[in-house]
Structure formats: C-alpha cells, structure tokens
Amino acid sequence: MNRIASQILSAALPLTAAAALLAGCATVAHEGFSKADADQSNALDFHEFATSAHERSLNTLDLNGDNYISAEEWHAAHPTPGEADEHFNHIDKDSDGRIERSEALLYLKEHVGFGKLYKDSDYSGDGMLQIEEYRDAEPAYLQLHLLSFKV
Fold this sequence. Notes:
Layout: H1 3-36, H2 46-61, E1 69-70, H3 71-77, H4 83-91, E2 98-99, H5 101-110, H6 112-121, H7 131-141
Helix pairs in contact: 1-7, 2-5
C-alpha cells in the first residue's frame, strides 16, 4: 500500500470508530427509551420518565433486591450522616425506614430540577418526550436518580 493510501486509511479509521460509537450510543438511547415507554406509545409522559429514573435508583441503591431502598442501603451510598439522613427522611414520607416506589416517584415528580429537565427536554412542547428529545436529554437524564437532588 502506498503512503497516501495509508494516510487516508489512518484518517478514516478514527472516523469509522467514531461512527460506531455514535451508533452504539443511539442504540443505547433507543433501548433506554423503549424500556421506559411502558405504554408503547413511542413517547414518554412525565410518569414514565420519573419511573425510569426510579428504576435506575433501585439498580444503584437496592443492594438486596427487595425493590425498596432501606436506610442501611441509603447509608451505604452516603457514608457521611447528617444531610444524607435528612434527605432520606424527606423522601421516606411514612417514616417506615425504607423508600417505596410511590415515595420515590412522588419525590422525583415534585422536585423542581427533575421537572425542569423534563420540560426543557420537551422542545416540541407537546408534554411528551419523543425518541429524539429523549436522546438529546439522555446525557443529563442518565445522571439523575434519587441521590441527585438536595432536600
């Protein structure tokens, strides 16, 4: 292979790798969207968006797999007491020492930062997130869960 052809291939390989990476990201976004779209409407309402964030929190925090976040599991993620305790107690509305699905969803739905992300991501203004809007919001959205917000 001559030097010019070699240089062209060398330049093309990073572009090919970047295209593969972007295609992989699009696939991940589509899979996340499809999983969150409980009613298969091809759009996420706010409840589906919040439920998906809660599911990520469970995957991160629910160490024993019982679908609750106990005070012990919360403290494993927050080794320093104080503000973490206040945050847990704020979410645990019935004060039973664990965060249930309904409590987590209520907290996420009422939190201004989470609602703002949803509203800002809905650039069509129709009150639903389409796949394109979800994909655009995904980098910030994937970082959101119950630990993301201060009380």
